[in-house]
Amino acid sequence: MIITSVRSNVIAVTQGSHEISTVFTPPSEQRSPLTLTTMRIVDRIPAVVGFRVIPTTVLVLLTYVTIFTLVIVTDWLPEPPKNQHGLDLKQAYTDLRHVSACFSP
Questions:
Q1: According to the 3-state scheme, what is the secondary structure of 35-86?
Q2: Domain assignment of residue 2, given as a range
């Protein structure tokens, strides 16, 4: 097996009386499509979330709006039942205020 010529990523190899040409891609240029997509996304992350004025302001604003919205949506008290089966809520609230007014270890 003898390499007869190398020109612009094409290698011609002679084996006996047969000549075989093949395209050679150097390892630095070999990338899968997934790697190219991943590298594009990874390269863009610092530009989007870099510590500059606009991206930081937008990130903080979205965080506060999300937290505030979740608190408003999930923070609700159910209405007391119509049929209380002898439960006196006003007396229970008064007792709770009385107990919590004193020091308790």
A1: HHHHHHHHHHHHHHHCCCHHHHHHHHHHHHHHHHHHHHHHCCCCCCCCCCCC
A2: 1-27
